[in-house]
Fold:
Amino acid sequence: MRKFPKNFLWGAATSSYQVEGSNRNCDWWQWEKRVGKPQSGNACRHYQLYEHDFDIVKSLNHNAHRFSIEWSRIEPAEGKFSKKELQHYLNVILALKKRNIEPLVTLHHFTNPIWFAKDGGWINQKSVERYLRYCDFVVRNLAKHVRYWITINEPTIFISHAYLFGAWPPQEKSLLKATYVEEHLAFAHIKAYGLIHKIYKELNLSSPQVSIAQNVMSFTPCRNSLKNRLAAYLRAKVYNMGFLERISMGNILKRMPLDFIGINYYSRQVVALKKLGPGNLAMDVCEKKHHRIAKNSLGWDIYPKGLYDVLLSLKKYNLPIMITENGICTDKDSQRWEYIHDHLRYICLAMKKGVKITGYLYWSLMDNFEWDKGFKPRFGIVDINYKTYKRTIRKSAKKFAEVCRTGVLR
Ligand code: FCB
Structure:
């Protein structure tokens, strides 16, 4: 039996574009139409059905819920802020609070308004001030009801998929542009961190908890060769810690502009270099079948111990850690419960080793639009029927609900 701390936050996460539906002012919407990729359409109709969804959240004993605000709804045209959409998100937050569920609000989860994307997106030097203007509007108006803010979701994934691999809009493949974007996102976070704290002081509210959601992976060297071990070590440094180091370097206070570290953990990479070269160091993985390991339906390795290793490697920052995402897409729900159970087991072990962990948010509350992969991958503890939008609670959700209720993992 493993016991979690009393005030531990338990819940699940979503993001606006993936669940709300009809985000027509968003760069992804435009991109889907242009390239004919999977269309997000109505997604889960969460924009209309959030009260119903939060009844489910409550029935599952969650005491926290992470969701994101859609910038393109709030500011559909540059400098024109929508009071109606602000009210919508206020209603969303109040619907959570009414049920005694702590809201964790993400300000940027991969998507941008069309006007912003058209004018160079995050490559444009003005991106930082544009983002801050949006943050100022949202945070000032919602601060009274929110304690936890995530400024940017997975900066490293956003940069690599949108600006290096050319997979997501704006489909760039440029190291130089990726470097600019990293610089701008880092400053955007540092400044938003300061801004959010300033707003809370001005409004006489107690200090907020502000972080990013940093994607982390476990990197296992294939075979015990020096070059693979070295590459695995370097990859962890760059991929897991790079952005964290970047924001602490860029900050004149010389301390981390984070009140806690939010991490998203899913999988591992087995590192096997084909040859020594910068691209190989960054990307090569073992393609042989000699690593027998279960995978999710997208083919990602399932490796719970990796979460433990990453948690211990983050201990040096001396900050509380929150698991802001961890989850599996699978068509076999029993595999989902096993996944949650095994990751929670390793979280317990990490806590025993002195890592301070304050919460666990499963990705995702419901099946949803998985970006360029469309609706096929099923990550939810709640099943969505995309024809009727009917929600069906899966068994894994009920098992997880027991842990949320008792704080005990059996
Ligand atoms: C993370 C994203 C989230 C979702 C999961 C599966 O990288 O933050 O939106 O797509 O992966």
